[in-house]
Amino acid sequence: MQQLTIVTTGGTIDKIYFDDLSTYQIGEPEIGRILTSFGVNFGFNVIALMRKDSLHLTDEDRELIRRTIAAQPGEHVLVTHGTDTMIATAKVLAGIPDKRIVLTGALNPARFQNSDAVFNIGCAIGAVQSLPPGVYIAMSGRVWDPAKVRKNRDANRFEPL
Asked: Which domains can be identified in the chain, with CATH numbers?
């Protein structure tokens, strides 16, 4: 992989919290800063498509994500996305030909010291380089087929169906 396309949609990975009542907004994408700070040995392009909590994504938003990815010249695509509806978006992206698409996010904002964001991004980058064309989810050290995973909100983790 010489070039990675990154499509950001918002979600917890890019949230900025302001007070004890969990008032937040979704800030600038963190992934470019993260990859630059680690000195990655590949080029990347960040397309900041939207800044939404995934619970607020619409069918039209998912179609925009699909069209944006399909229009990219490269085959390697990483999507940062909120975890609550990541699986629904992954299913919409299925069938885009000749693309390796990996969705990832974070259960805690990247700006937090103990965030899982950097770990998930690293896992997703490894996955997008090594998997055959298709759509995958990379969370918590595992790579999932979107048709065989669910988010357990009570346990705050992804698990097999």
From this structure: 3-160 (3.40.50.1170)
What is the residue type of 93? L
Using an 8 Å Cβ cutoff, are 39 and 32 in contact?
Answer: no
What is the C-alpha separation between 117 and 109, in angstroms, rounded? 7
Give CA–CA dist 109/26, Å, rounded: 10
Burial of 95 by CB count in 10 Å (0-12 exposed, 13-18 middle, 19+ buried)? exposed
H-assigned helices in 1-135:
31-37, 59-70, 86-93, 117-130
State the Cα angle at 119 between 118 and 121, rounded to 5°.
65
pLDDT tens track for 105-149: 998 888 888 889 999 999 999 999 999 999 999 999 999 999 999
